[in-house]
Structure formats: structure tokens, C-alpha cells
Amino acid sequence: MRLEYPIPPSSEITPEALYLSRRRFLQSALTLSAGIALAACLPPSRESFPDRAGITPQATGTSDELGDPLTPFEAVTNYNNYYEFSTDKQAVAHLARDFPYQPWSVVIGGLVHRPQTLGIEDILRLFPLEERVYRLRCVEGWSMVIPWLGFPLRQLLERVEPMGSARYVRFVAIYDPEHMPGQKTGLFPWPYTEGLRLDEAMHDLTILALGLYGQMLLPQNGAPLRLVVPWKYGFKSIKAIVRIELTEEQPTTLWSTVAPQEYGFYANVNPDVPHPRWSQATERRIGESERRPTLLFNGYSEQVAGLYQGMDLRLNY
Ligand SMILES: Nc1nc2c(c(=O)[nH]1)N[C@H]1C(S)=C(S)[C@@H](COP(=O)(O)O)O[C@H]1N2
Ligand SMILES: [Mo]
């Protein structure tokens, strides 16, 4: 199923080295219904551009810490993996345009002392959003640089007080076949699920994102709430989360259930561990024509390598 609509092929998207120069932290006095009002909380942007929908993307950073420019908003919002809608990356934005994600709440439970259910308004009130410019490296071999708005998952986990027996965190995405055409097919064991080891989930780089480019998330990027784990392949960064559960056992995940020999639980970006069907040594940055080398842990080795000391990264792929 492919609908016709005016989306530029990704090869036509030119990198725009614009935007601003430094990371800033944002106060979040916003409500989801205020939607694009988030822009008003940002420092005035020196460069911004309107997209088709009249949204003005803004970011305080211009590049990642390695000096590579942000991937244009147009590409970030029109080239998406989101199998609940479609396996066609360029069809997702259109198919997801009317996905109803308000109201929304997230149930946090399992091995915690203070289980709770939080609405998106509660989350916005409790946890100030900050901008994090991260590389996103898809297991398929393409990548982007995205200015997320989010907060460390650790803050949410501390609030629910994990029990001593908790060792993993399980994430469950929404099941809504009425609005998600991909869920009407029996191809995947819906809902999408993911998991992290507790220490990975508590790491400062691991965030829950509610926005990007200074705007609340659009449906195609996982509105209203998605995980972002920048040193792991993109499929770990589960969209449209409705449940977060602390567990003792390593959780099963959608991809490790569907193809266990191809997608493991860890999924750390690693140029030296090929996917069984292709090399992971290089990647194509969206907007660039040449492939570039893939970096161990997606360039975040300094921060995260310690999590895997003594582990065989080939066996724990
Ligand atoms: N619920 C859900 N989350 C998901 C996916 C999905 O199909 N369903 N795809 C994953 C994959 S493979 C990638 S690469 C990223 C893409 O995120 P983006 O579209 O915001 O760039 O989302 C991840 N999260
Ligand atoms: Mo991906």
C-alpha cells in the first residue's frame, strides 16, 4: 500500500548546515495541548525554516559533539521506521498524520515500590526537558543527527523506586490496530516491545523524548513519548510507549522474537560485528552521498564502554 503525496526522496534532501551553536537547557512549563507553544520557551533562534505544515523547527545546537550538522527536520520527519504504520519509510509520516495520541498515559510498574500511571501532562510537569543532540544509527545502515527534547529515563525510574530484585526494564508500545494499519497484519507480534538492562536504562545518555527540533514529537517520530538510546541501533528506541516495567528476567523484545539470530537484546552499534546479511562497518548519513565509517557504540564509547566490560560483544550482539 503506497499513497501518493509530495515527499522528497531522501537522496534529494540537502544537508543544511544552519541552526545555532550550543546546547541549552530548556525549562518545561509546557502542556502537550500547547503543542507548538514549546517554541516560545526556546531562546530565539538565529536560523529556522518553516516546513510544509507551517511548523518552525528550531534547535539550540547546530551539530553533534563530533562537529557533524543536524539532519534537516524534513528528513527526520519524513524518513521513518515505524512498522505499526508501514514498512515503507516514506509512507509513515502520511499514514500516521491523524494518529490520536491525546490523552495518553504511561503505566510504570513491575518490581517497583511506587507503581504509578502518569499522563503526559504529569511527565511534562515533573521532568524538565533538555535538548540532546544525538546520532541515530539504524541497523539497516543509515544514520541521522537529531536534536531531541527529553529527560533522562533515570529520573523517572528513581521516582518509582526500583526494588533490589529489578535488573531489567521492559518497554511496551501502544496496540491500536484501528489507527495503525501495520498492526492489522499478522506479520509481527504486536505490540512492539523493547528492553534494557537496568544499568543501561539508568545511564545519563538514555532519555525519554517528547520532542525534537524544539517541537513536541510528531506521530511519525513516536508521539507522545519514545525512548532514545544513542549507542544502540535505532530499533531499541521504541516509540509510543504506554508501559514501562521493571523485571528480574531479561525481557523478550519484538525483534529478538522475530529474528533472534539477527537482532539480539543488546544491539550496541558495533562496526566489527556484522549483521548476518550485511556489514555494519559503514553507514550512510542521510543527506550525504558517501558512506562513512560506523563508530563503536555509535561514537559514545567513552561514556558507555564500561557497561560492557568483560562481556563478549560478538556473543551479546
Ligand atoms: N514502536 C516502534 N518503535 C520503533 C520502531 C517501530 O517500528 N515501532 N522502529 C525503530 C527503528 S528500526 C528506528 S531506526 C527508529 C527510527 O526513529 P525515527 O523514525 O524517529 O528516526 O525507531 C525505532 N522505534
Ligand atoms: Mo532501525
UniProtKB/TrEMBL annotation:
It comes from the Bacteria. Keywords: Metal-binding, Molybdenum, Oxidoreductase, Signal. Predicted to be exported by the Tat system. The position of the signal peptide cleavage has not been experimentally proven. Its cofactor is Mo-molybdopterin. Binds 1 Mo-molybdopterin (Mo-MPT) cofactor per subunit. The keyword Signal applies. Residues 102-255 form the Oxidoreductase molybdopterin-binding domain. Residues 49-68 are annotated as: Disordered. GO terms for molecular function: oxidoreductase activity. Mo-molybdopterin binds at residues 80, 83-84, 138, 221, 226, 237-239. Its EC number is 1.8.5.-. Transmembrane segments: none annotated. It catalyses: L-methionyl-[protein] + a quinone + H2O = L-methionyl-(R)-S-oxide-[protein] + a quinol; L-methionyl-[protein] + a quinone + H2O = L-methionyl-(S)-S-oxide-[protein] + a quinol. Belongs to the MsrP family. Part of the MsrPQ system that repairs oxidized cell envelope proteins containing methionine sulfoxide residues (Met-O), using respiratory chain electrons. Thus protects these proteins from oxidative-stress damage caused by reactive species of oxygen and chlorine. MsrPQ is essential for the maintenance of envelope integrity under bleach stress, rescuing a wide series of structurally unrelated cell envelope proteins from methionine oxidation. The catalytic subunit MsrP is non-stereospecific, being able to reduce both (R-) and (S-) diastereoisomers of methionine sulfoxide. Heterodimer of a catalytic subunit (MsrP) and a heme-binding subunit (MsrQ). This is Protein-methionine-sulfoxide reductase catalytic subunit MsrP. It comes from Thermanaerothrix solaris. The gene is msrP.
